[in-house]
Specification:
Helix 8 (about 230-245) packs across helix 10 (about 270-290) and helix 11 runs antiparallel to helix 12. This protein has about 450 residues and is of the alpha/beta class. It has helices spanning about 15-25, 40-50, 50-70, 115-130, 155-170, 190-200, 220-225, 230-245, 245-255, 270-290, 295-310, 315-330, 340-355, 365-370, 375-385, 390-405, 410-420, 425-435, 440-445; strands at about 5-10, 30-35, 95-100, 135-140, 145-150, 175-180, 210-215. It has a five-stranded mixed sheet with strand order 4-5-3-6-7. It has a two-stranded parallel ribbon with strand order 1-2.
Length: about 450
């Protein structure tokens, strides 16, 4: 179990009283650091001001943890009280879910300090809406989700949401989706309102446009059967191409024939893209299983999870990139002896990845960097290193995460962020697949 470290600051004008409290117990046994005592309240305030940022970050993280447990229906030590807006002539509240699809684009501005970034975004949202008493938290398992629980009526909610949207559009760093639930009437039912907001987000178009969606406006869309973008004929073609080992034709079918390379222009919904990518991943995994290649199964499963995660970013080019990598990994390549030049390029790429593991790293980006065709780069990378490119990157990030875990002052969510992942749930799954333990279990054993 991860140990929480506390710091204790006392104040008293009597020296012997301060010393008596300092020595009365072994504070370290209770994971408490006994700070140098203050002589009076004024000194306490001065020292607190010096540590104001750290105090603010710690308080913010505690609230995030408790409210995240609430929406996930996990045990929480306390039930937050709703802050009533003056003049609110209505009962109940709504959940406003703000999803920043590429939160990592803000990392450089905050020196990869996730807690500081989270505090900044929450405070900024309060300033933008003019609602200082807004109940807002950052989901601890999905760092790119900021959740507002509000009693505002629909007109005021829409006005606040549009202000938030305009701010993020001005940044130009990431598309943002805001999903607003129908009203609920108890804090205990916030879980259902949160799930409703997540559901309505899935009905949005797969595009880089930012938007606000109300659940009651999209009720029909939520309940509709998602159109299947893969016909039985396409599935049969995929299986035949896998059997023949024709990777070029398979990429053509997947990206052009089925249309994943143009899903944004063709008006696909987010959920349609997500389910189509999942179906293709499953077909590739089935082929690996049928060919009896157990050593490739974990690699393919990790790539399939990466593909699913990439859909969340609403980036068509990045999606085509990971699908290309997924198909290349599924194919059994004939072994070729690489020349000296490509061997040097792969070594340089490995050094670059080792140094920049926390940045966005993709097959196309690395292939472009070294002037090599992406499929050839992918094949040669695996031949030289013995690992698939994306698997190598994942293992490097997990390795760095294990190093960060030696420092008990860095929490697990922040470690995920420091190693290039803004979704703790995804980070935890990848970490467990590679190490056999969850991040929390691994740190608990240190």
């Amino acid at each position: 179990m991860e140990q929480v470290k506390y710091r204790l600051l006392i104040a008293d004008d009597e020296y012997w009283t301060r010393e008596k409290i300092r020595s009365m117990i072994n504070w370290e046994e209770y994971h408490i650091t006994f700070m140098k005592p203050a002589e009076d309240g004024e000194e306490v305030l001065q020292r607190m001001e010096a540590d104001r940022l750290q105090i603010m970050k710690a308080a913010s993280l505690i609230q995030d943890r408790e409210l995240s447990f609430l929406v996930e229906k996990q045990h929480t030590p306390y039930m937050p009280a709703m802050v009533m807006e003056d003049g609110a002539g209505m009962a109940g509240c709504s959940v406003m879910l703000i999803k920043i699809h590429e939160l990592q684009s803000y990392m450089d501005d905050f020196h990869y300090d996730m807690n500081l970034l989270s505090c900044h975004i929450k405070q900024r949202i309060k300033e933008i809406t003019g609602l200082e008493n807004l109940l807002i938290f950052n989901h601890i398992y999905r760092s790119n989700e900021f959740v507002i629980v509000t009693e505002l009526d629909q007109t005021r909610q829409k006005k606040a949401a549009l202000r938030i949207l305009e701010h993020f559009r001005g940044d130009g760093k990431s598309p943002v989706t805001i999903g607003i639930s129908e009203h609920t009437y108890t804090m205990e039912s916030i879980h259902g309102a949160y799930v409703q907001s997540v559901s309505v987000l899935m009905t949005r178009p797969f595009s880089r446009d930012s938007m606000v969606i109300f659940c009651n406006e999209e009720e029909t869309s939520i309940r509709k059967t998602v159109q299947s973008r893969i016909s039985q004929e396409s599935e049969m073609q995929i299986r035949a191409l896998l059997k023949s080992g024709n990777s070029r034709a398979l990429k053509e079918l997947t990206l052009e024939g089925i249309g994943l390379a143009h899903c944004a222009e063709q008006g696909w919904d987010y959920l349609e893209v997500k389910q189509t990518v999942k179906r293709i991943s499953n077909l590739l995994l089935d082929d690996i299983l049928q060919k009896g290649l157990p050593e490739q199964i974990q690699e393919m499963e990790n790539l399939a999870e990466m593909a699913d995660k990439v859909v969340d970013r609403l980036d068509g080019r990045l999606l085509a990139d990971i699908l290309t990598e997924l198909i290349d990994s599924a194919m059994i390549q004939l072994r070729q002896e690489p020349g000296g030049t490509i061997r040097d390029i792969i070594r340089a790429a490995v050094a670059y990845i080792d140094e920049n593991y926390f940045e966005e790293l993709t097959l196309v980006m690395l292939a472009d960097r070294y002037g090599v065709e992406s499929s050839y780069f992918s094949r040669m990378f695996k031949q030289e290193t013995g690992r698939n490119l994306m698997m190598y990157i994942a293992e490097k990030r997990v390795g760095k995460a294990r190093e960060y875990m030696e420092d008990k002052n860095i929490n697990l969510t922040e470690i995920a962020f420091l190693t290039g992942c803004d979704d703790y749930t995804y980070f935890s799954r990848v970490f467990k697949k590679i190490t056999g333990k969850s991040p929390r279990e691994y740190r608990g054993d240190l």
